[in-house]
Fold this sequence. Notes:
By secondary structure, the protein is of the alpha+beta class. The chain is built from one helix and eight strands, in the order αββββββββ. The chain folds into two domains: 18-63; 65-178, Immunoglobulins (Immunoglobulin-like, Sandwich), CATH 2.60.40.10. Helices cover 25% and strands 27% of the residues. The chain has a four-stranded antiparallel beta sheet with strand order 1-2-6-5, with no helix packed on it. The chain has a four-stranded antiparallel beta sheet with strand order 4-3-7-8, with no helix packed on it. The longest helix has 46 residues, at 18-63. It starts with 17 loop residues before the first helix and ends with a strand. The model has no long low-confidence stretch (mean pLDDT 77).
Amino acid sequence: MLTNIVSKKKSTRRGITPIIAVILLLLMTVAAAGAAFLWITKFQGLVSQQMNKQLGSEQRCEGIKLSIDQVWLTSPNISFTLRNAGTYNLKKANEWEAITITGGVSGGTQSFTNVIGAANTSTTPCFATVTIPDPWLVGATYKITCADWFTAADPDENDVYAVTAQPPCGTPATNSVVYTT
């Protein structure tokens, strides 16, 4: 019978010692934890930024409020004082220029959907009698005149004319005046 002869020759290959293996495992663990920490921090920052942007927009809309303090008729125009009664300064391009003015006699509505124009302009039905600055500061009041308000019909005695100023978001303002001769 043949027997296996095992050589007692010493191997020249050497393995990683247990101490170096543990150190390598610890380094890989620290690197993975560091990468996870950086990823989570970046993700949390993006989520926080989106939430702040959304909350800022909602708070801004809650802070926009208009007030119509007076309304008077000077046929064929209607004029009123419009005040920024909120807690937020209105920006020109996308807030106070986007205010929609509507109104008319009870039972029939005459509507102007336009930009509140610059001072004394004839390009829009409703315009400010003086230039409204950018931004429109909280508490500031401006006289707005809407031309040709009575073009559909002449006013009758005791007609109630209501005016509403609706900002792009936030609280609208409403007031009215009774026409007397």
